[in-house]
């Protein structure tokens, strides 16, 4: 939970105008460590990519 709170704090300070964002994608291996329910409760536009560890590789491959 501590890591999730840290991420939520970072998002809220970085993206001050969150109402203008359509979607925020969480990718990478660390996105598996984030409490997805808590993030989605704060930001309804948050999306967690399936197979987040290899999402970047698949994107470059395509």
Describe this structure in words.
- The protein has helices at 2-14, 36-42, 55-61; strands at 24-26, 46-48.
- A two-stranded parallel ribbon has the order 1-2.
- Helix content is 44%, strand content 10%.
- It has 62 residues and is mainly alpha-helical.
- Helix 2 (36-42) links the parallel strand 1 (24-26) and strand 2.
- The chain is built from three helices and two strands.
Give a summary of the structure in a few sentences.
This protein is mostly helical. The protein has helices spanning 2-14, 36-42, 55-61, and strands at 24-26, 46-48. It has a two-stranded parallel ribbon with strand order 1-2.
- Shape annotation: globular
Total beta strand runs: 2
The Cα radius of gyration reads: 12 Å
**Strand sequence of the main sheet, in spatial order?**
1-2
Report the uncertain regions: none
Strand content: 5-15%
What is the helix tally? Answer: 3
The biggest sheet, with number of strands, parallel, antiparallel or mixed sense and barrel status, is: 2 strands, parallel
What share of the residues lie within helices?
A: 40-55%
């Amino acid at each position: 939970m501590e890591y999730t709170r840290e991420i939520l704090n970072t998002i809220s300070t970085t993206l001050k105008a969150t109402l203008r964002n359509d979607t925020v994608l969480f990718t990478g291996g660390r996105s598996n460590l984030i409490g997805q329910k808590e993030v989605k409760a704060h930001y309804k536009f948050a999306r967690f990519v399936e197979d987040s560890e290899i999402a970047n590789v698949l994107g470059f491959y395509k």
